[in-house]
Amino acid sequence: MKREEFASLAAKGRVILDGATGTNLMRMGMPKGVCTEAWVLDHPDTILSLQRAYADAGSQIVIAPTFGANRHMLDQYGLGDQVIRMNRELAALTRKAVEGRAFVAGDIAPTGLILESAGGEASIEDVFEVVKEQAAALADAGADLIMIETEMSGDEASIALDAALSATDLPVTCTMSVQADGQAYYGGSIFDAAETLEAMGASAVGVNCGNGPDQLESLIRKLRGMVSIPIIAKPNAGLPTIGADGQAHYDMGPDAFAAHMKSLAAAGAGVLGGCCGTTPEYIARMVRRLEEAD
């Protein structure tokens, strides 16, 4: 997909993303503490089933399970030399799951490195190279676009976008996980970052994780007035509580989620999906609610 193609897709109306991956994989049997990417490759039917359900629900973009498949994160499991292979195989699983019914996004998470400016030992170049390597691997794997997600500081979001844009001509989007007032957890705000990311060449910006959709309407409305590129809203299914089973349970059901996502669309979000706690049912309900509003 060319960057102009993504812009044309967004200009036609709302773009529907998928919902959560990690919380669903845990519900489907993935243990805590394992390398998610390695577990998925060992249990491919699990991700195939989940992502087929997202395509069935109406997702136009389904995100490959490559969230932590960068060298630094994989090094923690002794898999740092498997970046290219794992990103290639994980992207191939998503292509197989959607069978041409949706675009495949390569997913890039925060690297796990802590920048020197935040009290860590990693340089800007360290973060840049880790993201560039994964972005290049995803582009070579046939991803249609790159989605940088869950960034918690404006600095790392900017470095990650710069690195991804240097590695590929694909569209690159960037979302941050922020507090309800838009402040990032480790420096800056989504408002400051959004203008910078647009100027750098992001194809879309916005927020994912961190909040439920009921907390984001004013934030989305303010973002819409600040940038000209599409705004992404990919919130959680409300707030989590930890059940007796040790799993996180989210307090917002599919109907309430869909109603609030309709409000976010009205506020200016043009690329919509779900994060932690959402399932294919949430996406299907959201799609129906948005269609009723048209």
Summarize the structure.
By secondary structure, the chain is an alpha/beta fold. It has twelve helices and ten strands. The strands form two sheets. The protein has an eight-stranded parallel sheet with strand order 1-10-7-6-5-4-3-2, sandwiched between helices.
Mean pLDDT: 96
Please identify the structural class as seen in this structure.
Answer: alpha/beta
With strands numbered from the N-terminus, the spatial order across the biggest sheet is 1-10-7-6-5-4-3-2
Tell me the fraction of residues in β-strands, as a range.
5-15%
Distance between the termini: 27 Å
Helix share of residues?
40-55%
Principal-axis shape equals globular
Quick one: biggest sheet? 8 strands, parallel
Question: Describe it for me?
Answer:
Helix content is 46%, strand content 14%. By secondary structure, the protein is of the alpha/beta class. The strands form two sheets. An eight-stranded parallel β-sheet has the order 1-10-7-6-5-4-3-2, with helices on both faces. It has a two-stranded antiparallel sheet with strand order 8-9. Strand 6, helix 10 (217-224) and strand 7 (231-234) form a beta-alpha-beta unit. Helix 8 (154-167) packs parallel to helix 9 and helix 11 packs across helix 12 (280-293). It is globular. The mean pLDDT is 96.
